[in-house]
Amino acid sequence: MSLTDQEVRHIAKLARIELADAQLERTRSQLSSMLGLIEQLQSIDTTGVEPMAHATDLVLRLRDDAVTETDHRAAYQSVAPAVEDGLYLVPKVIE
């Protein structure tokens, strides 16, 4: 795919990249090669191929969900100035 100078400058502006005149031809070449690769990928027939979340099949090794800490809630709330139904009561700060 061939890009014009105006298109390359527009893409650079959208990407918020300052592009000097000396860099224009090199940038056009790089963008054209990227767009060519995208065209190649779009031409591949993917009928019957299921979408994947990753390029390889990943299996997560999970550990057992086991409680490792003891419940200290009652001890913590015993020293609180005001508690109701397991919740800390605080003064209203917004009227």
Number of helices: 3
Largest sheet: 2 strands, antiparallel
Average residue-wise pLDDT: 91
| Quaternary organisation | single chain
N-end to C-end Cα span: 63 Å
Total number of β-strand segments?
A: 2
Strand content: under 5%
Structural class: mainly alpha
Shape: elongated
Q: SSE string, helix = H, strand = E?
A: HHHEE
Contiguous uncertain segments of 5+ residues = none
Helix content: 25-40%
Q: What's the gyration radius in Å?
A: 30 Å
Strands ordered across the widest β-sheet: 1-2
Structural write-up:
With 95 residues, the protein is mainly α. It has a domain at 5-43. Helix content is 37%, strand content 4%. It contains 3 helices and 2 strands; from the N terminus they run αααββ. The chain has helices at 5-14, 24-42, 73-78; strands spanning 83-84, 87-88. A two-stranded antiparallel ribbon has the order 1-2. The mean pLDDT is 91.
